[in-house]
Each structure stands twice: as C-alpha cells, then as structure tokens.
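Suppose you are handed a protein chain with no further information: no name, no annotation, nothing but its sequence. What can you learn? This example shows the usual starting point.
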Amino acid sequence: MPYPAASKTHSLATMAHALATIASPKALATMTHALATMAHYLTTMVHALAKIAYALATKAHGLATMAYALACSHYGHYLSHNCLYLSHKGQWLCHNGLCLSL
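A reasonable first move is to predict its three-dimensional structure. Written in structure tokens, the prediction is:
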C-alpha cells in the first residue's frame, strides 16, 4: 500500500460512518419497528396456536360428552339427552343408567 495512513484513516472513517448510520434516529426507529413487527407476528402465531388448542379441546369435550350420553342411554332408564342436559348443569350424574341428583 502506497499510503497506509490514508488507508487506515479511510477505514476509521468508514467504521465511524457505519456506526453513525446504525445509531441514527431513523435506523433506531426502523430497528425498533422491525422488533415490534416480529413481536406482533410471534404473538399472532401464539394466539393462532391457542385457538387451535381450544378447538381441539372443544372437539375432545364433544366426543367425551357423546361417549357419556351413549353410556348413560345404554341402560335405557332415561333418555340420554335429558340425563346429559341435567349433568351439564352440574346437578345430576348418570350412574347405572339412572340420573342421580348430586
């Protein structure tokens, strides 16, 4: 290199410019916006996963309710709908085909 001092000075000036660019209010605002956008997308994905989990839990509850109704109606003493309705209110329990009060 014919001019090492000039080259070093140019390198330092380039680094100083890069730091000033990164530390500029516009760059900081852009980075903050990018972080906020990523956080928004992350919370959106978590919310979507929670909705999927809720839907699956609702389906599982429905299947369990149907199984309960079938087991209750198997004995034929009460209509499964009535026993199921009463049990859903938390006041009755199906036991051996009978709707028993709790």
